[in-house]
Design a protein that fits this description.
The chain has about 350 residues and is an alpha/beta fold. Helices cover about 30% and strands about 15% of the residues. Helix 5 packs across helix 8.
Length: about 350
């Protein structure tokens, strides 16, 4: 979507290294803001950015950071298998200028993408932005990480600032996507690009009972206090996620990137392109590169089952003990069940 060598501490946007004095943006000092966000709440044994109603549903603790590292390697491997006119084709399919000067990674997470791009484009300034300060401090000199709520507050980058705005795995991050797209559009240089990357739904594993496929309700009564009579734990979790999405303030589905792209067009974008790639689930492919991709994605899926459902299901009334039971059952029943199946990216 386009619009008409040394390591050091993260540097500031004007090129000077941060000093001990507070540097302000959005009315909050960098040092005080980071100090406040580091006091992350623990909820049901997982660490989150906020406990407020409607807050982002995924944890930010070390297990989740490890899963994000795996996903970054998966994405880089996948893109390296596809032809691209981008000067950094391992990290984006956007046909950006060969010599970009500024790139924004929105929802940077652990900062892996921003760091890799900065290493490949040493003359380009890369800004990684996230709600959580979980990025490393020893980074290339042209990387800067900013911690802020980019939906609640105005962006301070100024207009026409970036050659590329990149956002990956941000479903569930924002309540008002149309407003986010308008801010992205305003932040782009003329001819700049926005790239939104999302993994699609994990396919239903093979071998599960078929009698409730497509049904929201279980065969028995929906009871938050005890396991219901779903044909499989996988279906039980999926039904719980659907129930959560009905009332969630931040939509965690993929409507923000689905055709006919009305939100993007209203925000001012043109030349909107949609690319769909396939990632196998598991080691079933014969091709070694695809097999390696599938192994990485299967690990991320299994490690992410609890992460993706714990907060949503406990917020709709499931006791943690029930979530734990159903998650463990789901992990056992899907072993070997993804043969021949893939996920869209």
């Amino acid at each position: 979507m386009d619009d008409d060598d040394s390591e050091t501490a993260p540097k500031s946007l004007d090129g000077a290294e941060d000093s001990e004095s507070d540097r302000s943006f959005n009315g909050l000092s960098t040092r005080s803001l980071v100090g406040s966000v580091l006091e992350y709440p623990i909820e049901n044994g997982r660490r989150y950015t906020s406990t407020s109603e409607g807050a982002y549903f995924m944890p930010n603790d070390e297990p989740e950071q490890t899963r994000l590292n795996i996903l970054h390697h998966l994405y880089s491997s996948l893109l390296s298998m596809n032809e691209s006119s981008s000067p950094i084709g391992m990290f984006t399919l956007a046909p950006i200028t060969p010599d970009p000067t500024r790139i924004l990674d929105l929802g940077t997470g652990t900062g892996d993408w921003a760091i890799d791009v900065a290493e490949h484009l040493p003359s380009c300034e890369v800004v990684g932005a996230d709600l959580a300060a979980i990025q490393p401090t020893a980074v290339p000199a042209n990387v800067y990480f900013e911690v802020d709520d980019f939906e609640a507050q105005d962006w301070t980058f100024g207009g026409a600032a970036f050659d590329l705005v990149h956002a990956r795995d941000v479903a569930g991050s924002f309540e008002r996507w149309e407003e986010i797209y308008r801010k992205m559009h305003k932040a782009l240089k003329p001819g700049g690009w926005v790239e939104i990357v999302e993994l699609g739904e994990v396919p239903r594993p093979r071998g599960l009972p078929e009698d409730v496929v497509g049904n929201v309700e279980p065969r028995g009564a929906l009871d938050a206090q005890s396991d219901t009579e779903y044909a499989s734990a996988w279906d039980e979790l999926e039904a719980g996620k659907r129930q959560y999405r009905m009332s969630a303030a931040r939509p965690s589905d993929l409507r923000h990137i689905a055709p006919p792209f009305g939100m993007l067009e209203r925000a001012g974008f043109d030349n909107i392109q949609r690319t769909i790639l396939q990632v196998p689930v598991g080691d079933w492919p014969d091709d070694p590169a695809q097999k390696a991709l599938g192994k990485m994605w299967l690990v991320a899926v299994l490690e992410g089952i609890e992460a993706t459902v714990l907060r949503p299901l406990t917020r709709i009334g499931w006791p943690k003990e029930r979530v734990d039971r159903v998650v463990e059952r789901a992990k056992r029943e899907v072993a070997g069940g993804f043969a021949g199946l893939s996920t869209e990216v």
